[in-house]
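Students often ask why we bother encoding 3D structure as a string. The short answer is that it lets us treat folding as translation between two languages. Here is a chain of 126 residues written in the first language.
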Amino acid sequence: MEEIKAWAKKLKRQIFILYFAYKDNRVPWYAKLFAACVVAYAFSPIDVIPDFIPILGYLDDIIIVPLGIMIALKMIPKDVLSECEMKAEEMMKNGKPKNWIVGSFIILIWILFFLWVILRVYQLLK
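And here it is in the second language, the structure alphabet:
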């Protein structure tokens, strides 16, 4: 159980590293875009595979998010990464920030996506 807690804490720290890297001007645009998507998905209350589906529901939390983090971290320059690691450590000690605007934006994106899917299915069934 301790190993799982340590793994989860490391994952959380890496998400904060990506959060800070996204804000850094030295990070290439494609790395910023990918990092932003990974962070948004990790913090999003909505998953591609809902958690109530047995076994498959936790697949994204166990495979997709860590894989996205690993790929995003490889895209970020080493000097930026080391600075972001220090910022992430400090943030974890002080508590994570709450950004209601970004949270609302993420939920809005998911709502628009589901509305688009519903409209597409409706058009196909016509």
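Translate back mentally: Residues 100-125 form the longest helix (26 residues). Keep this in mind for the problem set.
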